[in-house]
Write a structure and sequence with these properties.
The complex is a heterodimer.
Chain A (H helix, E strand, L loop, with lengths): L2 H9 L6 H16 L4 E4 L3 E4 L6 H10 L8 E3 L10 H14 L4 E3 L7 H7 L1 H9 L3 H10 L5 E4 L3 E3 L28 H7 L1 E2 L6 E2 L6 E3 L1 H11 L3 E4 L8 E4 L4 E4 L13 E6 L5 E6 L4 E2 L5 E2 L12
Helix pairs in contact in A: 1-4, 2-4, 2-7
Chain B lengths: L14 E9 L2 E16 L14 E9 L6 E6 L5 E5 L3 E5 L5 E6 L2 H17 L5 E7 L6 E7 L13 H14 L3 H13 L2 H14 L3 H15 L4 H7 L5 H7 L13 H8 L12 H20 L6 H22 L4 H7 L10 H17 L5 H14 L1 H11 L3 H17 L3 H11 L6 H8 L14 H12 L3 H14 L18 H13 L3 H27 L1 H5 L5 H20 L2 H10 L2 H7 L7 H16 L3 H9 L4 H9 L6 H22 L6 H20 L5 H31 L4 H5 L6 H17 L8 H4 L4
Parallel strand pairs in B: 5-8
Antiparallel strand pairs in B: 1-2, 1-7, 2-3, 3-4, 5-6, 6-7, 8-9
Helix pairs in contact in B: 2-5, 4-5, 4-7, 9-10, 12-15, 13-16, 15-19, 18-19, 18-21, 19-23, 23-24, 23-26, 26-29, 27-30, 29-30, 29-31, 29-33, 30-31
The chains are: A alpha/beta, B alpha+beta.
Main location (chain B): nucleus
Subcellular location (chain B): Nucleus
InterPro entries (chain B): ARM-type_fold, EVH1_PP4R3, P4R3-like_central_dom, PH-like_dom_sf, PP4R3-like
Chain lengths: 307, 789
Amino acid sequence: MKVDETIALLRQGKQVSEETVYTLCLRSQELLMSEANVTRVDTPVTICGDIHGQLHDLLTLFDKSGGVENNKYVFLGDFVDRGFYSLESFLLLLCYKLRYPDRITMIRGNHETRQITKVYGFYDEIVRKYGNSNVWRYCCEVFDYLSLGAVVDGQVFCVHGGLSPNVTTVNQIRAIERKQEVPHEGAMCDLLWSDPDEVSTWSLSPRGAGFLFGRNEVDQFLHCNGLELIARAHQLVMEGYKEMFGGGLVTVWSAPNYCYRCGNVAAVLRIEDGLSREYMIFEAVQAQDDVGNAIIPTKKPQMDYFL
Amino acid sequence: MNGVRQDELRETESKRVKVYILEQNEWKDTGTGFCIGKVDKEERQAEQNAPPEDALAAYLVVNDEEAPEKTLLWSKLEGNIEYQRQEETLIVWKDLSGQDIALSFEESTGCDALCDFIIKIQKSSENNISLVAVRSNDDGMGSVHEIITGPVNLPCNDAEQDEKQLMEALKILNENTAFEYLRSETMEFVLKSNYVATLIKLFEKAEAGHKLRELLLLSNILKTLTLYNQRELLEQMVGDEYIMGVVGILEYDTEFPTSKANHREYLLHSGPHFKEVVPLNSDDMKRIIKKTYRLQFFKDVVLVRFLDEHSFNIISDIILDLQTCIINFIQDETFLPKLIALYTAASPDTPIETKRDGIRMLHQCVQITKNLEHSEKSRFFKALVRAGLFKIFDFAFGQETDSGIRILATDMVISIIEHDILLINSVQNELINQPEGLDQEQQHSHKQPAENGNCTVSSDVSLLAILSKILLTDKSLGLKEQVVQALNTLLHPEGCMGMDPDYNDSGGVDMMMNFNDARSNGMNEENLIDNMNFQMTDYFNNFYTQVAPQLFAPLITNSLSTPDDDVLLIYLVKLINFVSTEHNRRLSREFIMENNILKNIAKLLDPQRMLQLRLTVVRCLKSIVCLNDEFYHRYLISENLYAPVMDLLRENLHEDNLANSSILDFFKIVSSQCMQALELKASDKRNFIMLNKHLVKNYRDILLEVDYVPFTKDMIRMYDEGEGQLRESVTESTSMVYAKEGKRTFSETLETTKVSTSEETTTFKKAMEKITSAPPQSFIKEDVLGTEF
């Protein structure tokens, strides 16, 4: 498999062969196994939120933020589901990671599981595109190897959902067996599912998994771990990003016009060497193919009838 | 007054009523009488421009109950009067002179009769009057207004329309979605007046004239119509007559004004094309199939970014109904047997491509059933098995070489067994018990089940055997993946109890444990398990005697060594993990122990092996440790099987990676379980004291080096503190367990104590509290404990 060729195909939203996906997934596993549950990353780095299969917006994201050739990125998960190009988006990130291992960090989101992708689109997309679900299985296997978080310069804790009552220190996350389907409760589940809210202490989450946590929990966690910021995604923000709790936490959302209809803008967070934060806002733009013709995002029609 | 015709000139029945007039903001009772609605010659007031003599008008008339000749009310239904029906018995309005009038009926049926009259008049002659129902909200605060009848703005239906008219039409259609009455009136208009046909004609002109704005307006009009969620209209749109025009209009999209989709071209070239493996012989069915196809195209492509959840569901419901029709047709007596016959000795000349198409077609049908009701699904799958689905599998797994086709066949197997794991066996039992119902060939295959790979009907585990063989021998990776899923489902004791089989892959300890928690919480599940026990003991016995020795042969003979084999070995280790945690303990453990499988699995921790495989082995061993099973614990220690795990740790001692984390998780489990055993006097956790002792005794050096988590120190401390007295109590408990083990039933074994996640968490917390309350130890990093303790 030639990574550069696959990247070119994926950028055009073209189908890659089942064998290529398999090889790609296997090689990604090798890379991911060498990573920590909480990966260490240095500044300068660009932190990106949910992508949700919006391939063309992901391409815009790279375009507008300088590109993977010259920049480091942390993706906070939810690469798949909802949008029509989950596979291409996820594989493109894997390819970039293989091509530039130190420039891409991928954190697992709550959508990177077998159970959720069966319901919210990724499984369906694969069956449409390949006629069977094998490629979905290969990808789900990679999901299990993804990191649970990252720390930028020891100061910014990156996670998909949020905090967990079972995790007081970042170091505790190290002793989690992450190679598994996301459990329905416990630390690993909470990191991927929790949300910040105006609550005085840990509260039940309306999502049915994870917790709601408030300023107290954030302040304590930051203090305990000598951190300055928690960067997370997981919730749609119409303005692309939202800081809370006196700037101790930020939600970053990177899928503009979410589901092709929400009308929101997207953002990524750039952290410079001195830990200064800079948000780059971008909108959904008309997707184009390799020769500049417009592409209208859509699902692939199902196969025809055989009766 | 031209709308009221002579033949409608009649009166309603009279209804008892009180008449009120609003005077100076107070309702004044003007008397009680009988109210009728009547159509009469328009006379009464002598006006200057008096209408022609035969002109008719409608009136609400009340005559005094005591003096019938005395008229209490004579009010004309005219102009744009809005009548309000308030609650059940009141009609209130303001007439054209500005007078507020209220009729309070004795009975709600009286009010109904007069409201019907108003509706009739609105529909026939006085189109501009309206009737609105006003009810108070459920919470008593505020009120709900609902239009019962009234004037409806409708879009222009002219064959020639300009941009302005289209804009107006779009506005009207959007407004009319607000009230149920307006919606249904609008839909009636759209359906009766062929409005869609008008739109298509306008579209053709606009497209020919390159009038983009009109095209976009038409597209928005059509989209708005879909939001009315009217089934008949949606079905009309995908009919032969309109479909091309409709998708043509929808190729234009305001969101992408500079580009155009190619729906028409796609439909022309892509279908649906009927590849009739067996002739359909039904035009109706072809129509239904086309309709289904087009509705799916609508839902998935044409309107995919536009539909809201409600509209999406309406279209899905229609599709579901049509699919139910299709599935019913397929299992019809005439169709299925013809299809199956292609694979039997009766038609030896069936071309291989036809056979393949047959499988593709059946696979599609099985896919269709995904959304069907449970009972419908069962009926279809049973019909398939009864008709001889296994003849098709014989072909796919016996003769077919194309792995794409074999993947489809396996996928069908998975769908059926995931729906109901016992379905195939129960249908086959049914066939065996009614031999007169079988044809010659089927009877033949009963007698010689195992020969030449024929799997038609035989012992319960033939499917397991076939799948095992595919897993071990087939080269296709995709097929292997699928087969593992099928095996997991077939081997899942809960499969028959409707539990979600999606978790079959997990090597994760937590997942397995949740499974067990869920089970023990159910109320009747114990009984269920007992009942299942009877049926399933045979099945699982057969598995362990007939299938498992082949399936796990590579782990028994330890024969595989090339890198490609490592992928297969991952599957097999996962399966061992699965059967050891989910199956009857005695049965699975006997097999695993007697064949020295754990010993051979531990050999796979060799650094030459793929790291994924080595980590799968670690997880498998952890799961088995968590079973808290005396036999396993003693075996693992006596065979020294933790040594290669510690070697793996040594390789990764100062790395922060997956291997390191996975082993830290192991230490966390050992230390927390051990602590529980010691501090809570939990006698059923003694295995962990034994394990901790073994680990600290043999690997103290490496545990000391793992100084970045607290639980390795706990392990050492607990060992050092508890050394002497432990030995005695462990021996004691062992003999007790041995004595009891022989008598255990299936259900009892299932309930064997396991380490649960929540337990683990609370223990972890307790451990942390304990440690922090103790004087700080110099080698624990601050980072680990946190400062708020």
